[in-house]
Amino acid sequence: MKVLFYALFLFPAFCFGQSVNEPDKKVTIGTVHTIPSAHLNEDREVWVYVPASAGAGDKTRYPVMYLLDGKDFFHLMTGMVAELSSLGRMPKMIVVGILNKDRGSDLTPTRSMFSRDGMVDPDFKNSGQGEKLLAFLQKELMPYMESRYNTAPYRMFVGHSLGGLTVLHALVNHPSLFHSYVAIDPSVWWDNHLIMKQAQKALTQNDYAGKSLYYAASNTMEKGMDTVRVIKDTVYANGNVRNNFQFREILRKSRNLPWAWKFYPEENHSSVPLLAQYDALRFLFKTYELNKDLDDPTLTPDYLTHHYRTVSALLQYPVLPPQGTVNSLGYISMENKQYDKAHRFFKLNVDLYPASSNAHDSLGDYYVERGDKKKAIEAFRKALALKEVPQTRKKLQLLEARK
């Protein structure tokens, strides 16, 4: 695997006191993988980002985002994922950026020679290979990722323009592949608006429980046109906006599909991904955030347990409260002399993470605070049986010396 890096050279090296002989330092973002594909009949390059916490020994499983036009959006999306997850507003995720060799082939689900004014667009001479791309994703790329990384079952699909068309095609025709979908200014005009016709039938008849969609529309209207008159307008240049509003009406009739549709009046087709990607992540994971400060007195073990049941339902696999968060809540409660609450947090951590030496050590600290030497010794011995930690050993020896 190659290392994908992004070096920043904002100032000459001597500004930082760097020796001219010192090698440049790199900021590593992800890795480059080249995957042989029988479905595409070629080798396909993908860029993979993993959370910083996914180091050696980490057994956490991470949901996976599959990002179309990866070369264009990899840096933008991975930065957002890293920042929002660090704030607790979404889960940490693996991001897989998919690169194209022939975009007009990969991202068009049907064969159609797009033309305007009698001129055939050469970008679409090989159009209609979108099903092969989805077969590559399902039968080659996903198994590849799942065999090499700690992946969780939850999968997201993100695309812009023709990529947005591919996302909608997957939602309508292959809904089992992903759990959430982000279509940014999708090219729903393709092949005489075929995806709109398909969606009108599928979204109203099929069961989309457990799926969700964020749909973004940019402003590509001619000056002087507005969002009311554009619906009945027939000018070609206003077609994208008109199509997006028409697709919104299809979504309004959908069957149990959670969705959000947003028009960005200040953004054009090229600029809209920046804001839309952020808004999509906030919408799709709006119930993920804890929404309480750790020192909030209403943040109880029961509240925390209920919240992570909600998170588990959102991601459709079991998600436990983070061990570090529960541990911190225990110590905060103990410092506030809320001893019953502190005990419940420490006991919850031991129940959730029975193989954690630190969880048992913290429970031992609680028993020391409460003057229960016998239970403190039991907790420290259990912690040491799991992992030898000098600080825990010292605490145990001090207690045993007082017998």
UniProtKB/TrEMBL annotation:
Origin species: Rufibacter glacialis
InterPro entries registered for this protein in UniProt: AB_hydrolase_fold, Esterase-like, Siderophore_Hydrolase_D, TPR-like_helical_dom_sf, TPR_2, TPR_rpt
Alphabetized UniProt keyword annotations: Hydrolase, Repeat, Signal, TPR repeat
Pfam families in UniProt: Esterase (PF00756), TPR_2 (PF07719)
Similarity comment: family membership: Belongs to the esterase D family.
Leader sequence residues: 1-17
TPR repeat start and end residues: 357-390
Database matches in PROSITE patterns: TPR
GO MF term list: hydrolase activity
Protein name, entry field: Alpha/beta hydrolase-fold protein
